[in-house]
Write a structure and sequence with these properties.
Layout: H1 3-10, E1 16-18, H2 23-33, E2 37-41, E3 47-52, H3 53-63, H4 72-75, E4 77-78, E5 85-86, H5 91-101, E6 105-109, E7 115-120, H6 121-143
Parallel strand pairs: 1-2, 5-6
Antiparallel strand pairs: 2-3, 3-4, 6-7
């Protein structure tokens, strides 16, 4: 299964926040949308990085900072460290990259490096379970001779 197929089923909506926003705004946006990460953009809509719940929690703990005074740019994963996927990437490879790098969200980019979607580990697991259920159903039908000859 490919990353593009997951985006087709879940939608290509990408939620973002401005690089100069404060962490409490990012938390409010994530909470309102029930998501775990936001793409961080500058004023020209260029990707500057990604900020996740985990980024915020770790940085706030380390610095003992208040989220109302902390900038998103100070806690985000910057663009140069961002792990991205392409629509044609296999989800098993994405799961491996996520596991190896201890991340739960990967932005999907096009040929011009524009973000076209975001895939979470939950999205991958949901898609794999759906695919396995489909395979099991068809194998069961085959075993029970439900296919005409």
């Amino acid at each position: 299964m490919k990353a593009g197929k997951i985006l087709e089923s879940k939608g290509k909506g990408v939620f973002s926040i401005h690089v100069d926003a404060i962490v409490s705004d990012a938390l409010q946006e994530m909470s309102a949308r029930n998501i775990g990460a936001l793409i961080v953009l500058d004023g020209k809509e260029n990707v500057q990085g990604i900020v996740s719940e985990r980024d915020i929690m770790r940085n706030c703990y380390r610095s003992q900072a208040n989220v109302k005074g902390l900038a998103v740019k100070d806690v985000m994963t910057p663009r140069e460290k961002l792990i991205v996927a392409r629509a044609e990437d296999d989800v098993n490879d994405l799961m491996g990259a996520m596991t190896q790098n201890h991340i739960r969200h990967i932005p999907v980019v096009d040929d011009q490096d524009r973000v076209t979607g975001m895939i979470s580990i939950g999205d991958i697991i949901k898609a794999l379970i759906k695919d396995k259920d489909y395979q099991i159903r068809h194998l069961k039908d085959y075993i029970e001779n439900k296919y005409p000859l």
